[in-house]
Design brief:
The structure holds 2 protein chains of 2 kinds. By secondary structure, chain A is mostly beta strands. In chain A, the strands form 2 sheets. In chain A, strands 2, 4, 5, 9, 10 and 11 form a 6-stranded mixed sheet that branches. Chain A has a 5-stranded antiparallel sheet with strand order 1-3-8-7-6, with no helix packed on it. Chain B is mostly beta strands. Helix content of chain B is 0%, strand content 53%. In chain B, strand 7 and strand 8 form a beta hairpin. Classes of the chains: A mainly beta, B mainly beta.
């Protein structure tokens, strides 16, 4: 099955700086890559996703890039704010079989005011 | 608020017991997924139902079972509970069962087995 690796496990940045989180996947059939933000005591919240027919997608301060050849995708957060502090998870889903998601191990992002 | 609801929010029970977790999907969503989140295993897919039928199984133990009812709510049943079953259990829903569909997560149920 799919194996998703995520780095780094923790990331601290100064407010206003950028943050980058990287993930790799193993199954070349995967073609949907969502990112989730999980705040303490809450469920994962879908913040952005990308499908394998595009290389980059942007939504305000958040962007995701996908390199299908290298089988990796990244989350970029610019102009970070204290409210961006949370655990971020990448995930992958295959075009074949079920729609279930395979998650990375998470990155705890801390934005220092 | 994702529109997915889960009850109860917290559950404390003893080893060997059985519990039922409940999930109501977003309005219009036909698929329900159950995930387990633990410190050592991360977020893991357990099982998916689509319009009342089981569609996919992941790392779900035989002691665990689920069903989806005609009104589309779903229940996850955990029996013969062990200390290691303590975790957060999330339900997610999506519109269809096709791959590449967005999944929206509920707030979770925190299960503590003592």
């Amino acid at each position: 099955g799919e194996n998703v690796e995520q780095h780094p496990s923790t990331l601290s940045v100064q407010e206003g700086d950028s943050a980058v989180i990287k993930c790799t996947y193993s199954d070349s059939a995967s073609n949907y890559f969502p990112w989730y933000k999980q705040e303490l005591g809450k469920g994962p919240q879908l913040i952005i996703d990308i499908r394998s027919n595009v290389g980059e997608k942007k939504d305000q301060r958040i962007a995701v890039t996908l390199n299908k050849t290298a089988k990796h995708f990244s989350l970029h957060i610019t102009e970070t704010q204290p409210e961006d502090s949370a655990v971020y998870f990448c995930a992958a889903s295959s075009r074949t079989g079920a729609n279930n998601l395979f998650f990375g191990t998470g990155t705890r992002l801390t934005v220092i005011p | 608020d994702s529109g997915v609801t889960q009850t109860p929010k917290h559950l404390i029970t003893a080893t060997g017991q059985r519990v039922t977790l409940r999930c109501s999907p977003r309005s219009g969503d036909l698929s329900v997924y159950w995930y387990q989140q633990s410190l050592d295993q991360g977020l893991q897919f357990l099982i998916q139902y689509y319009n009342g039928e089981e569609r996919a199984k992941g790392n779900i133990l035989e002691r665990f079972s689920a069903q989806q009812f005609p009104d589309l709510h779903s229940e996850l049943n955990l029996s013969s509970l062990e200390l290691g079953d303590s975790a957060l259990y999330f339900c997610a829903s999506s519109e269809g069962d096709r791959p590449r569909g967005e999944q929206y997560f509920g707030p979770g149920t925190r299960l503590t087995v003592t």
